[in-house]
Structure formats: structure tokens, C-alpha cells
Amino acid sequence: AGAEDACRRALAQDPENRTYLKTLGLCLAHQEKWDEAFDAVLKVMGEAEARVFLGRVLADRGQPDMAKVQMELALKADPQCDPAREFLAKTGGVQ
């Protein structure tokens, strides 16, 4: 929560800073504020990339089924999304 506050203060000074937005998304994801995290990273990347980002966070947090859902959504947004395709191939997800 402290890191989230720091990111929000930094964004108040520089609202378009891509690093701050991505870091805010990561902070929110680690607090399981998934919708807010997605909204934050969507400001700096496309939908497929944002879903891959969240999928990787979910996988790192020991939530493989939810990670696969995000990767499948990434492929729906962009059928050519290689990171999502590769993740699903390695984890036995639907492609």
C-alpha cells in the first residue's frame, strides 16, 4: 500500500510517466486489486500486453488458473500474442 501511495504521488507530478503507471499497476496487482491494476497498465500498453502482464503476476503469485484466463484473454485481444501463446503452451492451457 505504501508503494501504491508513492506511485500515486509521483503520478500527481507526472501523470503520463509510463514507468510510474506500470509500477502502480504492479503494486495494485500485488494487492489483488485486479481491475485497477489492469486499468493502470492499459494506459501504457495494449490490451493483450496488459493481460500478459497481469497473467505473469498471477502466475508468480501461485494462481496458475487465473493466469491462464488472462493469457487466453490476451489471445482473444490479439491472436498473434506470442507471449500468451508460449505461456499457455508451457502450462497446458487452451490455445
Features:
single chain, 95 residues, mainly alpha, 6 helices
List the helices and strands and how they pair.
Layout lengths: L1 H12 L4 H13 L3 H9 L4 H14 L3 H14 L4 H10 L4
Helix pairs in contact: 1-2, 2-3, 3-4, 4-5, 5-6
Compute the separation of the termini in Å: 35 Å
| Helix fraction bin | over 70%
Order of helices and strands: HHHHHH
How many beta strands in the DSSP annotation? 0
- Report the portion of residues in β strands: under 5%
Query: What is the residue-averaged pLDDT?
Result: 93
CA gyration radius, whole angstroms: 14 Å
Low-confidence stretches: none
- Quaternary organisation of the protein chains: single chain
Please give the count of helices.
6
Which secondary-structure class do the elements indicate?
Answer: mainly alpha
Largest sheet: none
Shape: globular
Describe what you observe in this structure:
By secondary structure, the chain is mostly helical. 76% of the residues lie in helices and 0% in strands.
Question: Would you kindly provide a brief summary of this structure?
Answer:
The protein is an all-alpha fold and 95 residues long. Helix content is 76%, strand content 0%. Helix 1 packs antiparallel against helix 2 (18-30) and helix 5 runs antiparallel to helix 6.
